[in-house]
Amino acid sequence: MAIQAKTRNEVAFARLRGDILSGRLIPGQKLAFAELCESYGVSVGVIREALSRLVEQGLVHSAPQQGFFVTTISGPDLVYLTQARCEIESLVLAHAIAEGNVEWESLVLASHHRLVNAPLVSPEDPERLSEEWVERHSDFHQTLLLGCENPRLRGIAGQLRDSAELYRRWSVPFDHEGDRDIAGEHALIVEAVLKRDTALATQRLVEHISKTTSLLLESGVVEGAEKR
Asked: How far is it, in rounded angstroms, from Cα 216 to Cα 222?
C-alpha cells in the first residue's frame, strides 16, 4: 500500500510540474485544490504534498489566506536568479573539475550523450520543450557538478536550476531564432571540463546560463508572460 501511495504522489507531482513547465498552467495562475484533485484524480493530501515540493523548487509560491499560485516571472527576478546561478554554479563546477575523478568524467560524457539524443521540443507543439529533453537537460547540468564533493554547494546549485526552469520554458521560441546553438553550447562546456580547463569551462557555463536571460530580456516576453 505504501508503494502505491508513493507512486501516486510521484505521478501527481511530475504531472503538475510538467503542466507548469509546459505553460498549461501559466505564471501567476491560482492553483485551486478542487480543480487539481479533479484534473489529476488524486486526493487533497497528494496535491498538497506536490505543491509543497514545487514551492521548494521555486515553481510555485503560497500566500497567506490566498493559497498557491504558479510563480510569476519578472525581469528583476530573472536578473537576480541569473546572477546567483552564475556565481554558484561556476564555483561548484570549479570544485568538480578539481575534485572529480575519471568515473565522474564518464558520467558527464554519458549524460551529454543522452541529452544530444533527446528531442528539444515536443512533437505536438514546437514551442514547448519535450519532457524527455527537460529531464535529460536537468540530469546533464546536475552531473556536471557531481564531481564537487560538497553536497551543500551542489544542493544550492540544484535549487537555483529548478527555479530557472520556468524561465527556460518561456525562452523556447527565442532559442530557435537567430543562430543560437544550444547543443553546441553544451558540447563546448563538456570539452573544457574534460580538458580540466577550469577558467574556460566556467566561462562557457556562465555564457550558456546568461544567454537565456539575454534572449528573454531583449524579447520583452518576461513582463508580459502572465497574459500569454
From this structure: 6
What are the two backbone dihedrals, phi and then psi, of residue 149, each rounded to the nearest 5 degrees? -80, -10
Condensed to tens digits (0 to 9), the pLDDT of residues 46-86 reads 999 999 999 988 889 998 889 999 988 888 999 999 999 99
Q: What grid cell was written down for 139?
A: 540530469
In whole angstroms, how far apart are CA 151 and each of 11, 159, 160, 170, 180?
A: 27, 12, 14, 30, 33
DSSP 226: G
Q: How much is the pTM?
A: 0.78
Q: Is 193 exposed, middle or buried (0-12, 13-18, 19+ CB in 10 A)?
A: buried
* Measured distance CA(55)–CA(68) in Å, rounded: 9
Cell of 66: 490566498
The architecture in CATH of the region 2-70 reads Orthogonal Bundle (1.10)
Helix axis angle for 102-116 and 131-144, nearest 10°, is 160
- Say whether 75-227 and 2-70 share the same fold: no
What's the CATH architecture for 75-227?
A: Up-down Bundle (1.20)
Tell me whether residue 20 is exposed, middle or buried, using C-beta atoms within 10 angstroms of its C-beta: 0 to 12, 13 to 18, 19 or more: buried
* Greater model confidence, 128 or 217: 217
Q: Which amino acid is at 63?
A: A
* Domain residue extents for the chain: 2-70, 75-227
